[in-house]
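Hi R.,

Here's the chain you asked about this morning:
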Amino acid sequence: MDKYDGGREEIDRYSLRGRVFNQIREEILAGDYQEKDELKEAAISKRLGVSRTPVREALRQLELEGLVTIIPNKGAYVNGITAEDIYDIYVIRSYLEGLCARWACQHISKDQAEELEEIIYLSEFHIQKEHWEQIYALDNRFHFYLYKACGSKILEHILSDYHHYVERVRKNTLSSKERARKASEEHKAILEAVMNKDVERAERLANEHIFQSMENIEHQGLEKLMEKRENQSTKGGLE
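And the predicted structure, written out as tokens:
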């Protein structure tokens, strides 16, 4: 996926520095660290089997993303993603996903449309079988392919980041067969509107889809969902 950083420094995810950055970022977003936990350079470099330099650079980049605060002469501390952040992200996403669907009406390719149709078909199959990991992965794929179909690298990058930030709670919301089926139906309706080039309907349905997801999260209790992985902190090394 092409990256647009809105003025931020770009990181090659395949470089050592990029791999360290992505590893720490994944751990923060997965809830392996708690808010205000200190990220000690020496401990992280030893655990990941790298020098302190790429760790230091990764922490600086994470500070630019708002996930870490670096206090001079003290250290780096986790900001994480709070329940309030999750709510804000869903509201912002609802409008941006609507814009994405609107633009996709003009830019979607035949291959992208066929891929999205295949994702919906596979989702329906796995929902019947209650294969939760596959359902979750396919839900991610649908959104990422729709982001690509909008024709804007900038919007694709922003939405991909927001989507990634809320993965910890999204995975729990799709563990209900009823919600998973409803989400798949909403995806199908969005794609139909996009294929028919009905920009108003596509935008409205995409907007409503995110609000439906947010309402489902609120129904389950956002604070409770945020705490589900509180005690999970298995951190492996880099391959």
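The two ends are 22 Å apart (CA to CA).

Let me know if you need anything else.
M.
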